[in-house]
Amino acid sequence: MKLIYENPLSTPEDVKDFVLEGKAVISFENGRLRMENQLSEVEGQKANYVYWCDREFPENIRIEWDFLPVREPGLAMMFFAAKGRDGEDIFDPSLDVRNGEYKMYHHGDIDAFHVSYFRRKEPDERHLHTCNLRKSYGFYLVAQGADPIPDTSDITTLYHIAVNKYKNIVTFDIDNLRIFEFADDGESYGKILGGGRIGFRQLAPMIAEYSNLRVSEITEEDIRCIGFGSERK
């Protein structure tokens, strides 16, 4: 794979061009990007936020980062392949302004995948820990797998997370453990998504840290190494 973007997420300079939608406290006290809500969780969706990377990426990519949940409850999420519904950049001035409220991202004027992990917000999420892949526009739950990350009281190290997207295939791994794989038929849940923006999302009152963000371009030769299934267009 060809590395096309690398960011340690260790200082304010590393994220100076990132775009925050909603309100959050961004810090680097441990040499890692730390995010927490600025507004009280009693504000509901208004207390949640998205932190977008400062560039667009091509269609076939591997996104990797290290993740450390510090405080729960809450939920972490990665948006990827995010574009306007007519192919615009998500920051095109013709699109609605977003403020972190979830409906704007799954029933607004953008298309995207969003994988949620470390889901510890609602009672059902705490009862059964899963990682979910949704496709929007439409809020379609298209894949799900068990979440191997323990609660914060048992965490002793960072977790390495990877999203692979190649044409119509999406896979999700935590510490090299395959959590799920999704093959999009381009009809059941709307058109196949191409390239676009990536961004981190958190739900209040969670605190988490992120580091070593890397994006690599996937080629046909990389497929066996990554471990994609045989169903591929």
Which range does the strand content fall in? Answer: 35-45%
Largest sheet: 8 strands, antiparallel
* SSE topology string: EEEEEEEHEHEEEEEEEH
Task: Return the structural class.
Answer: mainly beta
In one word, what is the shape? globular
How many strands appear in the DSSP assignment? 15
Rounded mean pLDDT is 95
User: Count of DSSP helices?
Assistant: 3
CATH class placement: Mainly Beta
Total discrete domains: 1
Task: Enumerate the spans where pLDDT stays under 50 for 5 or more consecutive residues.
Answer: none
**Corresponding CATH architecture:** Sandwich
- End-to-end separation: 20 Å
Please estimate the helix content.
under 10%
Offer a concise description of the structure.
By secondary structure, the chain is mainly beta. It has a single domain, classed as Jelly Rolls (Sandwich).
